[in-house]
Design goal:
Layout (H helix, E strand, L loop, with lengths): L15 H17 L14 E2 L9 E5 L5 E3 L2 E2 L3 H4 L9 E5 L5 H13 L5 E3 L2 E2 L1
Parallel strand pairs: 1-7, 2-5, 5-6
Antiparallel strand pairs: 2-3, 3-4
Length: about 130
């Protein structure tokens, strides 16, 4: 019978602090991430050779049939939502490539009458 004290094993590093840090980072990124709202309807922008992407906070969507949407607003109610647009803020128009150019041309005077001064057409790279 062996009554000698057992040999002491080397303690392994605990992974619990690392797991805590990973979960804290995960929570941080989930809380600070800005999730883009879904598009109101399917829009495929036209192709272009523009080098810089169009950027802005306010996006006006135009479907292939000419339907308008901006945020939760649909149809002519979109023009009421343009009041929140700052004087120097651009309005991004995300129009479907199947939409005829004259439909966008008809829209521009209406936008100008509601105080929109800067308009950018969103396109996708070729």
């Amino acid at each position: 019978m062996d009554l000698s004290p057992p040999t002491k094993r080397k303690n392994r590093e605990s992974v619990v602090p690392m797991i805590n840090v990973v979960f804290l980072l995960l929570i941080f990124f989930l809380m600070t991430a800005q999730i883009a709202p879904p598009e109101p309807f399917e829009v495929t922008p036209p192709q272009s050779s523009a080098e810089a992407p169009a950027e802005g906070k306010h996006i006006l969507y135009m479907s292939a049939s000419g339907e308008l949407a901006m945020g939760d607003l649909r149809g002519d109610a979109v023009f009421e939502g343009l009041r929140n647009l700052g004087e120097n803020e651009p309005l991004m128009i995300r129009a479907d490539q199947a939409l005829k150019a004259n439909e966008i041309a008809k829209l521009l005077p209406k936008l100008a009458s509601h105080g929109v001064r800067h308009v950018k057409l969103v396109s996708r790279m070729r």
